[in-house]
Each structure stands twice: as structure tokens, then as C-alpha cells.
Amino acid sequence: MAAETVFLLPGQGGYVPGMFAGETATEVAEVLHIADAVAGEFGRGGVSGLLTDPDAPDPATLAKDDSFALQLALYAAALASARRAAHRRNPDVLVGHSMGEIAALTHAGAFDIADGARLVCHRALALLAHCPQPGGMLALTLPAGRAEHLVRAVAAPGLAVAVTNAPRHTVVSGPEEALATVARVASALEVGTVRLPAPFPFHGPLLGVAAEAFAAAVSDVRQRPLRALVYSPVAGSYVTDATDLKALLARQLTAPVPFLAAVRELHAAGAQHFVECGAAGLAGLVRRSVPDVSTESTTDTSAEPTAGTGPVPASVDAATPGAGVRDVLGELRELYAGTLGYPVEAVTGDADLEADLGIDSLKRAEMLGKVSTRFGLDASVDGGRFLAQSTLAELAELVTAAAGRPTAPGAAPPTAAPPTPTAAPTSAAAPTLAPGSAPTVAPTLVPDAVPASVEIAGEGAGVRDVLGELRELYAGTLGYPVEAVTGDADLEADLGIDSLKRAEMLGKVSAHFGLDASVDGGRFLAQSTLAELAELIAAARATGR
């Protein structure tokens, strides 16, 4: 079946505190009202406050303190976002990611809004009653095959590959002790890990009893005729009215989610536009998984679709001019998560860029170029000042001021403690890209990621050889003839390379010459000619730094 436009409805990771603050759309209000009413049927408080109050608990806090409310909020967030998005564009097919399948099926008419909420509530209660031991989920910057090898090597009961999100983004689930072991092994292998704010070890064998209890509890919920196409990643196919959807949802608790395979199959069948109904980073996963598609997220209704295959939005106007620090922070989180291959919820405002997220000075310089493109920052921006910021919250304040946007009153960045990655990933080589373009896949954060061009400059290369390569690299990027890019040409005055462009080029230079993370990015940015830069690079290579 051909399906050009796909709506993606997220599960875990789709809740953002206050994501519907100030929302007046009736389709959103209806979902929140019904979700609150159904919560009352189960003797629980409503969840509309979580979705309308920016100061509501974050996902990690809810996962620990009130997993029932978190799951119902996830359902309401995805369904309300899809209903709102449908007013702008009708989807050809709906795809739910993990628990998002309940919202996708509800939006397609298989269940009414209240029954969809009841399915979620019964699911949450079954998990609370029948999950035998503490557990959760851990994201790895590995392909599924290598993650499977790691799981087999650890050989812990209940440990399983749970979700394949993108070519190098795989999630495992299991008991706490097993996840800790996986994290230690991953750290030894220099593989990046992020603990997800998931309250249970979803999509693994530990939830077998809970799945049975859930199936029994929802046997009387009515399944209605479908009004739209739904593709189930767990089933690996489109569902029909003949599909026992409640049985599928029960099986989903223990079955793996091959999201990558689903995206690729839909793309091969003609899907070209993917709309994420929420803010879980699914659009970024799609861009890293298939070429030549456009994506957008309903959390930014002013944004034009992002064309291409990388995580950098093509439209500078995607951030509305009146956005304050909170909105800028949200966009920065998505941009950094997409580039690093992390789930958005792991990239918090107060996470230390280097200590928690593994973003060294060279990677930070590379990201500065993407930030400047994303927010339309001009050449007068002080790149060194931007590089000095240690958290995205600090960077958001600087970007807001530089972009001339008003700081929203009372819009302080989130202060919740971040889910700290167990192992800080090592930065891979930055690909050589034209300004404003984006990588085809997420940065490779595994130890076998050797820069393709490191050997271009031989071990005995001196300043003259390094300068020659720098001239070719800069000329190719800028579109100048090599003879115009001389060693003593002033980078800014003669070649028009402002501080932001210089920061972007630093990432390419580090990849080309194989410079490691200990290099002082600020010192490199301070050089005003390629001759000076060549001396610095030659010295860094000679000392192994």
C-alpha cells in the first residue's frame, strides 16, 4: 500500500511537562477532559495538569513516583497531538511507537477516546501488580546486531533487545542489575549509553505475567471498525478489522519493537513525509534511517517540514520569533539529541555537555555551526562565548539574547536532574558537509569509528603539508579556488569566515587531521590565518594531541 504521509505517535518519551500550556484547540481539550474522567473511574487523579502546567513533574520523576499518571499522560499527549495535526494534514497511515500504538489505533477509530484511555489504565495497573522486580530500559549507540551480541555476552535472565530505533540506536530492557552490567561493559567498549525514564522493562520477557493480566482485564473493551490505515511495528504489517488488536497490544508488552524496519518498509512503499505527533525525537530517528524524506513535529506548529536526511532543520524560521528561553531550550534539546543519537528526554537543560553527554570541545564547536544555522545567528556572535557554556540551559539564554528574542517571563529552564549517561560517548569524526547540510546518519559513537581521512596527513607531515591540506579543505567548503585561499589570508577580513563559520570548520579540521578531544577548541578559534592554524595543528599532531 502506498502511504505518502505518515503520522508517528510516540510512547515513552512523548510526555513534556506543560506541552499544551495555553492550548485552546477543542480537539486537545476533549482528549484531556476524557482522560481525566477515565482516570477518575480508576480512583486516580487527572493528568491534564501534567500537560498544561510547565512546572509539572518531569518524566523521570513520574516514572519513579506515579507510573500510572505517566502512561495516561503519554496516551493523551500523543492522541491530542495527532488530532490537532490532522486539521492541517490528513495522514495516509498511522504508526505508534511502543505504547503509542494505543493512541494510533484510537485515532484510527479502533477504540473511542475513553476506551483507549481505559486500555492504558488497565495496562498501567497490570504492570504495577505483576512486574516481578525493578527494571527499566537502557539506550545504546549501537546497531541492533551488536547490541544483541552484547546482551548474549552478559547473559542475564530477563535481559533483551527491546527496541531498534535507528541504525545506531538500540534499546535494551531488563532487571536493574543486568542493565548495570550492560552499562559497565558498554563503558569499557566506549559505547554511549543513556538510561531512559521508563518505569518498567518494556518489550521483554519480564512482563509476561503482566501481559496476561492486561489481556484478561480488557476483554470487554469494544473494538470498532478502523477508519484509517495503521501499520504496527510489532506486527510488522498493517492491521485490519480482522486483527485482534487487544491481543496485539498485550503481546506488545513482551515483543520487541522494530521501529527502524517499519520506517524503512513504509519508505520503500512510498512514504515521503513523516509527522511526529509529540516530542519524543521520532522525527530525528526517521531522518537517520531513510534518505530523502521530510519530517516535522507537531510541537512546533510554525515549522516548515524539515527536508533531507540529517538532524538539522532546514528552516531557520522553525523557531517562532516570540519564543523565549524555554522554547529555545526545547529546540536545542531536539537538535542535540538528533545529532548525538540520544532520546530527547536524556538531553536535559542542566546536563553538563561534556561530563554528562560526552560533548568535548571539538564536538561543541561543530554543534555551534548547527546552532547558528538553526536560529539564524549572524556573524557578530562571539563564538568563544558560546563555546564556554557548559549546559544547554546556559546556551539557550545566550541564543535567546543573540537572536533578539524576548525572554518569556518566568520561563526558567527545567531543573530536574538529568538521566546521566553511564558512559560518556567518544566523539566520532565530523563529516565534511556543505554549510547548513546534515549528516546522513547520526554520529557514530563506537570505538571502531575511525575518521576516514585521518591518514591523509602522514605522521611526518610538517607545517607546509598541513597548510596545503587546510587550503584544500577550506577552498572546497567555501567554494573558492585553492589559489585564493592563501596561508596569510585573514580568515574573516579576506575570506569572510566569521566566528560561527570558524567554529563549524573546526569540527571538519579535527576530523580531517584526527585531532582528539583534548585539543583546546578556543585556542584554535583564536587563530586568524591558515598559516597560524597549520602551526597549531602540526604541533598538536606531533604531541599526539
From TrEMBL:
Annotated SMART domains: PKS_AT (SM00827)
Protein name: [acyl-carrier-protein] S-malonyltransferase
E.C. numbers: 2.3.1.39
Species per Swiss-Prot/TrEMBL record: Streptomyces buecherae
Biased composition regions of type Low complexity, renumbered to the chain: 423-439
Ranges of Pro residues composition bias in the record: 411-422
One GO term describing the cellular component: cytosol
Keyword line: Acyltransferase, Antibiotic biosynthesis, Transferase
GO biological process: antibiotic biosynthetic process; fatty acid biosynthetic process
One GO molecular-function entry: [acyl-carrier-protein] S-malonyltransferase activity
PANTHER family: MALONYL-COA-ACYL CARRIER PROTEIN TRANSACYLASE, MITOCHONDRIAL
Biased composition (Polar residues): 293-304
Residues forming coiled coils: none
Span list, region Disordered: 293-319, 405-439
